[in-house]
Amino acid sequence: MLEFDGLTKSFAGRPVLRGLSLAVRPGELYGFCGANGAGKTTAMRIALGVLAPDAGEVRWAGRRVDADVRRRIGYMPEERGLYGKMRPRDQLVYFARLSGIRPDVAARRADEWLERLGVRVGPKDPLERLSLGNQQRVQLIAALIAEPEVLILDEPFSGLDPVATDAMAGVLAEYRDRGVPVLFSSHQLDLVERLCDRVGIIRDGVIVAEGTVAELRRTAGRPEVRITLTGAPENWARMLPGVDVVAETGDTATLRTRPDTDLGELLDAARSLGELQHFGRREPSLAEIFREAMAA
Ligand SMILES: Nc1ncnc2c1ncn2[C@@H]1O[C@H](COP(=O)(O)OP(=O)(O)OP(=O)(O)O)[C@@H](O)[C@H]1O
């Protein structure tokens, strides 16, 4: 298990992490979500030893992450960090060699990955001549080339087109299926909702909501209800108990429930106001759960 345990970190006296704890199990894709500046990159940098925490520690398989453990972690930093002037294949071989991989094996793996992820590059082209999406694929390969036991990826999907997104998602799912814990940060909540086994939402340096998307729906989400009524008095939606009105169009109102909303009571109240044509409940999306967690 990859564990972030009670991490705190301040910059110039300003706290950024305030006791952040989370755990990613082997074979789990974990989506690390939070507003800009919430502390995601800081936490990931601490895991990789780029930054030291003020308190707390990161462990892999019960062992505090040190230089030796770090070599077994594949990391995709937010600032990316490949050399623009160097050819992608040469860089990948170089990174693999840093991890102690034999040159012939490194070269073979680099070729296989470049081929598999469809990175088209002339033999002499430096990285900087590649499109942003292709540079990002090379960055992913750099994180994978030493066959890591853990993956930590900072916004791996940002700026990717749908085809590149699918390719990236496929690779992450493959590692998850091999039993690797995969943690990645993202603002693309639809993607996180679709891909991740579990999600953690960080706010002001602590996890404020965590679980499978289904668990978050039960604990942190507020379902919406859509009601269509005919023959009802004006402003009927505002007369209903235990809900907030999100939108009203014609005879239909969209309502956000509250934690104590009684749907039976709501249905009875709607029936008492007019002729009920439709009463439907919709589960909140991860984006709605996220907004809720930010507003709480
Ligand atoms: N080296 C540093 N020195 C001073 N402040 C820093 C440093 N690194 C990060 N910060 C501050 O810490 C806060 C958290 O930044 P961090 O990059 O961890 O957030 P994030 O959740 O990754 O945000 P985003 O979603 O925008 O990438 C920000 O206010 C940032 O300005």
From TrEMBL:
Keyword entries, A-Z: Antibiotic resistance, ATP-binding, Nucleotide-binding, Transport
GO biological process: one example: response to antibiotic
InterPro entries, alphabetized: AAA+_ATPase, ABC_transporter-like_ATP-bd, ABC_transporter-like_CS, ABC_transporter_ATP-binding, DrrA1/2-like_C, P-loop_NTPase
Recorded GO CC terms: plasma membrane
Keyword Repeat: no
Domain ABC transporter residues, every copy: 2-229
Pfam families: ABC_tran, DrrA1-3_C
Gene3D superfamilies, A to Z: P-loop containing nucleotide triphosphate hydrolases
Protein name per the record: ABC-2 type transport system ATP-binding protein
Source species of the chain: Thermopolyspora flexuosa
Highest classification ranks of the organism: Bacteria, Bacillati, Actinomycetota, Actinomycetes, Streptosporangiales
